[in-house]
C-alpha cells in the first residue's frame, strides 16, 4: 500500500492513510482526502478559496481514475460546487462519458444532488479587486467584461509560487492503483482555460498493472508532452518508476515555445515504490507519502531538475502584490 500526494495534499493525507490502513478502497480514500483539501481555504489553488479567473469567477477542474477498470471521470470549468472531485467520481460511476465541462458539468452536479457553495472567499475577492483596480485600464473598466482579455491573460501568470493543484495516488490493499486531482487552475486564467488536471493522460493516469502518475504546475506543458500516460507506459515497457519519470522529464526538453514553467511529476508503481521530480522546481518543493511502515505521513523533498531558465518570476512576483494580504 502507498499514498502519495503533493504539498497541497497535507490536509487530506492523514484521512487517506487512515482509510487505506482500514482496508478501504483506494478511490474512497483518495476522494475523502481530496474533499478535505477542497474545503481547506488555506490552499488557494483548490476548491473553495481558490483564486478566480480573469473575470473574478472560480472555475474548478477535477478527475479520478480507477486503474483496475481504466474508467475515468472528470469535470472542467465547474462553477459553484463544493466538491468537484465527487462530481468527477459521479461522472465515472453514473455516465457513459469520461469528461464533462462548464454548464453541462454544473447541470449534472445539480442532478446528482452535489452541494452548492460560494467558492470565492474573501481573500480572493479582495486580491481580485486590488488587481482589477490597478491593472485594468479606465476604458476597459467602463466596458468590463466586454473587453478583449488576451492582454490581461499574458500579464497574469500564476500568482502562486510553489502552490498547486492537489493530486493523490494510491495503491490499496487489494492492489488497485488509483489517481485523483482537484484544482482551481491558474489564478487569473483566461475564462474556460482547462489545465491538465481534468485531462486524463496529461495531469493523471492510473493502471493497476503498472502504476500511476499525476502532475502539478504548468498543465500546458504536461498536456503537450502527454506526461502522466507516458510515465505509466514507460513502466509498462519495463522501466523503474525513477527511470520512467526521468524519461518523461526528457520528453519535456523537446517542448519549444509556449509556456515553459514549473511542473512536478508524482509517480508510484504497482508494488508501492514512488518517485517525485520537480521540473524547474524551487528549493523547498516537497510532497507527502505514507506506507504501512510509517506511523504518520512523511514530508519529503522533491528531486529538482532544471530544463529551462524557469518560470517568469518577475511576473509572478508582480502578481504577489495583489495576492499577499
Ligand atoms: N496543473 C494545474 C493546471 O495547469 C495547476 C497547478 O497545479 O498549479 O491547471
Automatic annotation (TrEMBL):
Gene3D superfamilies: (Glycosyl)asparaginase. Pfam families: Asparaginase_2. InterPro entries: Ntn_hydrolases_N, Peptidase_T2. The active site is at 165 (nucleophile). Substrate binds at residues 193-196, 216-219. GO terms for molecular function: hydrolase activity, acting on carbon-nitrogen (but not peptide) bonds, in linear amides. One of its GO terms (cellular component) is cytoplasm. PANTHER family: L-ASPARAGINASE, N(4)-(BETA-N-ACETYLGLUCOSAMINYL)-L-ASPARAGINASE. This is Asparaginase. It comes from Paraburkholderia monticola.
Amino acid at each position: 500500500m502507498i499514498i502519495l500526494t503533493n504539498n497541497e495534499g497535507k490536509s487530506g493525507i492523514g484521512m487517506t492513510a487512515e482509510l487505506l490502513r482500514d482496508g478501504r478502497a483506494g478511490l474512497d480514500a483518495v476522494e475523502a482526502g481530496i474533499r478535505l483539501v477542497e474545503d481547506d481555504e488555506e490552499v488557494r489553488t483548490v476548491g473553495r478559496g481558490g483564486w478566480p479567473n480573469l473575470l473574478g469567477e472560480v472555475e474548478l477542474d477535477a478527475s479520478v481514475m480507477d486503474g483496475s477498470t481504466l474508467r475515468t471521470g472528470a469535470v472542467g470549468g465547474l462553477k459553484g460546487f463544493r466538491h468537484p472531485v465527487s462530481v468527477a467520481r459521479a461522472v465515472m460511476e453514473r455516465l457513459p462519458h469520461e469528461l464533462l465541462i462548464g454548464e453541462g458539468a454544473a447541470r449534472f452536479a445539480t442532478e446528482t444532488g452535489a452541494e452548492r457553495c460560494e467558492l470565492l472567499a474573501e481573500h480572493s475577492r479582495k486580491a481580485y479587486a486590488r488587481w482589477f483596480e490597478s491593472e485594468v485600464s479606465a476604458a476597459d473598466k467602463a466596458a468590463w467584461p466586454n473587453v478583449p482579455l488576451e492582454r490581461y491573460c499574458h500579464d497574469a501568470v500564476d500568482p502562486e509560487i510553489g502552490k498547486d493543484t492537489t493530486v493523490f495516488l494510491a495503491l490499496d490493499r487489494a492492489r488497485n492503483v488509483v489517481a485523483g486531482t482537484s484544482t482551481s487552475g491558474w489564478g487569473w486564467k483566461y475564462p474556460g482555460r482547462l489545465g491538465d488536471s481534468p485531462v486524463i493522460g496529461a495531469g493523471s493516469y492510473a493502471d493497476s498493472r503498472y502504476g500511476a502518475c499525476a502532475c502539478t504546475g504548468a498543465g500546458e506543458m504536461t498536456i503537450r508532452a502527454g506526461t502522466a500516460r507516458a510515465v505509466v507506459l514507460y513502466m509498462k515497457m519495463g522501466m523503474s518508476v525513477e527511470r520512467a519519470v526521468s524519461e518523461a522529464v526528457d520528453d519535456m526538453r523537446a517542448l519549444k515555445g509556449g509556456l515553459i514553467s514549473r511542473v512536478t511529476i508524482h509517480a508510484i508503481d504497482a508494488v508501492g515504490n514512488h518517485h517525485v521530480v520537480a521540473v524547474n522546481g524551487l528549493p523547498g518543493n516537497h510532497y507527502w507519502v505514507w506506507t504501512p511502515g510509517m506511523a504518520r505521513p512523511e514530508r519529503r523533498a522533491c528531486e529538482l531538475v532544471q530544463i529551462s531558465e524557469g518560470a517568469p518570476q518577475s511576473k509572478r512576483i508582480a502578481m504577489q502584490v495583489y495576492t499577499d494580504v
